[in-house]
Amino acid sequence: MKKISYISAVLLVLSMVFSFNPTLASAKVEGPSLNPNKILNVAHRGASGHAPEHTVPAYELGEAMKGDYIEIDLQMTKDGVLIAMHDEKVDRTTDGTGFVKDMTLAEIKQLDAGTWFNEAYPDRAKAEYAGLTVPTLEEVFEEFGRGARYYIETKAPNVYPGMEEELVRVLEKYKMTGPNAPSSKVLIQSFSPDSLLKMHALDPRIPLVQLISYSSPAVITDAEVEAIKEYAIGIGASYTRIDQAYVEKVRGHGLLMHPYTVNNREDMERLLDWGVTGMFTNFPDILNDVMKNR
């Protein structure tokens, strides 16, 4: 997505939503926030450098390695169940083929979500990874409970009508929503401003983070940051596209900055020096060690 089309989309959706629902604009005044002095160690798809991404063992390792948040990418099955998977197709991370949207949960549950990792990374392979299943969002909540923190992304929301409503329903069912303190249990992120605005309309208490994809070095204006600030508390972008000036501009407007996906110790050090307020990593153990020794 090119930056100019992204910003145009933000401004267009904002104008449409706020014109039809003027009370929504005022909701941001009492909106949620997070402590900017707390650097978040986000276990990207779990500790996915050590275990098959978006499986229970990866999430368990993420917590054991001092990750502050479990990151969960959401897709939705043919029968309307939210599952933890990054891709729209099951091909890369299971032994199956096809689009998630065309498969029922029962069909998804027949897939092996772990053997691929053992084959791709023999030095990190474990026998217990073979035969792992794809977890639903509800299963993740049941496994880790309200004691964990969750950084959830609505993936391809245009492919899944009703994804946001189902997400809010599940969050409410497991009592993950409510007045958000600085130690918020749930963060929602998306590349789609429309999806985030739907979430904001459904529950303004949930803190949101706008992801942005840049095809060249990132540049953002004060007006663009302020447009995002209307509904979000932070911005996420690839660490390979941003620089210190970008981070300082975002932070100068009071937004959090959470770059992705940072796996190298030297890159982590540099980003922390720039003033980011957290980052996504496949190796939360490395980031924990970097922060512990600063």
- Over all CA atoms, what is the radius of gyration? 18 Å
Question: Which parts are unreliable, with pLDDT below 50 for 5 consecutive residues or more?
Answer: 1-5, 15-30
Distinct helical segment count: 12
Find the count of extended strands (DSSP E, 2+ residues): 9
Using the coordinates above, name the CATH class.
Answer: Alpha Beta
Structural class: alpha/beta
Mean pLDDT: 90
Q: Quick one: biggest sheet?
A: 9 strands, mixed
What is the element string, with H for helices and E for strands?
Answer: HHEHEEHHHEHEHEHEHEHEH
Which strand-content bin applies to the residues?
A: 5-15%
Q: In percent, how helical is the residue content?
A: 25-40%
CATH topology: TIM Barrel
Instruction: Tell me, briefly, the overall form.
Output: globular
Number of domain units: 1
Distance between the termini: 36 Å
Question: What is the CATH-assigned architecture?
Answer: Alpha-Beta Barrel
